[in-house]
Design a protein that fits this description.
single chain, about 30% strand, two-stranded antiparallel ribbon, binds manganese (II) ion
């Protein structure tokens, strides 16, 4: 078994190392991850420049490379033959959750989707913690082992992946697992305009941490808020099936 581990937080992220170490239980592990933080870069593909890959020493048991590409580039590189054939792709453990609409921004999810496009089983793991330092990724790494065990025994249909969001709690305080649908995020972004030292304005899209609709039952947002691991099956087919017939009625000619 050869497992590829990637992320969007970058090669030096502690969550990446925790996940890669956890995956050594299932076989040989290779890590290919962006050299810099690529959070919220979505499913980006590098077409206009070459990619560079540099060997990195993370842990004795791991083959690891950083690249100047996006998370999905890292996975494509591996699955196109940069490393030996891959059986499973896991992404994360992301610093911060990927709940509701976050999924479309997330490079963590994009890495797993890229694997699904190549027909490989894939899962993305995200921890509901925002701090850069002092976060314990071990409880989430144990959960990743459990999920991967199930995923290997129960293959998903084509073009689907698992997105797993984990509360930032000690193992004993996590209440269990909930299979959950995507909830509704509420973003608090604001345009923050400041003046640079030469007098020109610059702009940040910034704001408080996103919230979500907690009154919706059965969602990833509610599950994590309640202390459960949210396991959400997601798919590349974003067609709104409910709207197909309505659009037929437009009678476009
Ligand atoms: Mn990230």
């Amino acid at each position: 078994m050869h497992i590829l581990v990637s992320n969007d937080d970058g090669i030096l992220a502690p969550g990446l190392l925790a996940l890669a170490r956890a995956m050594t239980r299932f076989g040989k592990v290779s890590v290919i991850a962006p050299e810099e933080n690529q959070s919220a870069n979505g499913h980006r593909k590098t077409l206009t420049k070459p990619l560079r890959a540099n060997a990195v020493k993370l842990d004795e048991r791991l083959t690891a490379y950083s690249t100047d590409g996006a998370p999905a580039d890292c996975v494509a590189l591996a699955l196109l033959g940069f490393v030996e054939p891959v059986d499973l792709v896991v992404s994360g453990i992301n610093r911060g959750p990927n709940l509701g609409q976050d999924v479309t921004y997330s490079g963590t999810i994009a890495a797993a989707f890229e694997a699904a496009i190549f027909g490989k089983p894939a899962a993305a793991f995200s921890l509901n913690a925002r701090a850069f330092d002092g976060v314990d990724y071990e409880p989430a790494a144990l959960i990743a082992q459990k999920i991967v065990e199930k995923l290997l025994a129960n293959p998903l249909p084509p073009l689907t992946i698992l997105s797993v969001n984990i509360p930032a709690l000690p193992t004993a305080d996590i209440k269990g697992y909930q299979v959950a649908r995507m909830g509704s995020r509420i973003y608090y972004d604001q345009l923050v305009t400041r003046i640079d030292p030469s007098g020109r304005p610059y702009h940040w899209i910034a704001g408080a941490e996103p919230g979500g609709k907690l009154d919706e039952i059965g969602t990833d947002i509610k599950a994590v808020a309640d202390g459960y691991v949210a396991v959400t099956p997601i798919q590349l087919d974003m067609t709104s099936y409910a709207l197909l017939s309505m659009l037929q009625d437009w009678d476009l000619k």
